[in-house]
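[Automated response] Your request has been received and processed.

Submitted sequence:
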Amino acid sequence: MQHARAVAMSLFDIYSEMADEDQAVALASLKTVDPSVHDALVQLLVTDALAHVLDSPPWHGLATPTLSMDELGREDPGPTDGALR
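Generated structure:
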């Protein structure tokens, strides 16, 4: 099984960059040649396709705290027309 996983890992980049139709044909051919490598490769491809927590930067999805003017140390909220001072 370790050999099959090693071979699957060496094939992963090639198969993951294929168009869906080409990948399906290549996987079907691989299944007839070496079913254990096919199964290991499919497992890698499926795992890669799933959404993962680390797919986005950790700061995405965090709430940004809103500070009051007192907390900012400003008394004047600034211009109301959106212009910078």
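Summary generated for your ticket: The two ends are 67 Å apart (CA to CA). Residues 1-50 form one domain.
If you did not submit this request, please reply to this message.
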